[in-house]
Design goal:
There is one protein chain. The protein is an alpha/beta fold and about 260 residues long. It has one domain: Alpha-Beta Barrel (TIM Barrel), CATH 3.20.20.140. Helices cover about 40% and strands about 15% of the residues. The protein has helices at about 20-25, 40-55, 75-80, 105-120, 135-145, 160-165, 185-195, 225-235, 240-255, and strands spanning about 5-10, 30-35, 55-60, 90-95, 125-130, 150-155, 175, 200. It has an 8-stranded parallel sheet with strand order 1-2-3-4-5-6-7-8. Helix 8 crosses helix 9 (about 240-255).
């Protein structure tokens, strides 16, 4: 039994030069497979390219809320073309980021809605990046619930435990990463404990969110083990059981994953 890293950025310039080496160590590091996630067009193209090259790597493609100003129908068409590869397992990361507000909020909402529709047309689940905007994300998801038949994943979930009850109404999945190993993680730990066991996923979000005790270094899929240890400890389950459950959940959500 091994772990699935549902959110990594081997397409990031910091990790890309070592992508080959990192993937070739997956077996040694206890990683069954990983999803390389795009955030704009170049990184989405690269994610699809890497996934087509490496057996154990899958891709998600989409335009991040930071880059919503760059979204247009030509790009959506390109995303649709890229998604014809069976190694593309989802549309993301898409969503709302009201923490940085790198794109105006109205434009973030527009690109978010358009990519929810795109994912529905393509029959793929969506991977959401939401920061300081959980209430707005909830409102949009509820309004567009008819388009969510292929599944919703809240990556790097940092909302409240109460909000989990709300997102449960659209059968959301929740991914947790390095943040649950941090000292000030109380809020995240409460949320993790509130998540239905069959909706729980793990991720690194590497090169970001490096878990304790490696904070300050670049994150990599191999550190997912530390996240898994902490989650198992917190939930009071054996590590093997946690691996089994989270890997099964990943394959249920990402139907193209083998
Ligand atoms: Zn993100
Ligand atoms: Zn990310």
């Amino acid at each position: 039994m091994m772990l699935i890293d549902t959110h990594c950025h081997l397409n990031d310039e910091k990790l890309l030069p070592r992508a080959e080496e990192i993937v070739s160590n997956f077996d040694r590091d206890g990683i069954e497979s990983a999803v390389c996630v795009g955030y704009d067009m170049p990184s989405s193209e690269l994610a699809a390219e890497l996934a087509n090259k490496y057996d154990k790597l899958y891709a998600a493609i989409g335009i991040h809320p930071h880059d919503s100003v760059t979204a247009d129908y030509d790009k959506y068409e390109r995303l649709a073309t890229l998604s014809s590869s069976q190694k593309v397992v989802g549309i993301g990361e898409i969503g709302l980021d009201y923490h940085y507000d790198n794109s105006p909020r109205a434009i973030q909402q527009g690109a978010f809605r358009e990519q929810i529709e795109l994912a529905d047309t393509l029959g793929l689940p969506i991977i959401l990046h939401v920061r300081d905007a959980y209430e707005e994300a909830r409102r949009i998801l509820f309004e567009m619930s008819a388009y969510l038949r292929n599944g919703v994943l809240l990556h790097c979930y940092s909302g409240s435990a109460e909000m989990v009850r709300e997102f449960d109404k659209v059968d959301a999945y929740y991914a947790f990463g390095g943040a649950i190993t941090f000292k000030n993680a109380k809020h995240n730990l409460e949320a993790l404990c509130a998540v239905p066991r069959d909706r729980l996923l793990l991720e690194t979000d590497c090169p970001y969110m490096t878990p304790v005790p490696f904070r300050g270094e670049l994150n990599e899929p191999k550190y997912l083990s530390l996240v898994a240890d902490r989650a198992a400890q917190l939930l009071g389950v054996e590590r093997a059981e946690l691996e089994e459950v989270t890997s099964k959940n990943a394959k249920t959500l990402f139907t193209r994953m083998k």
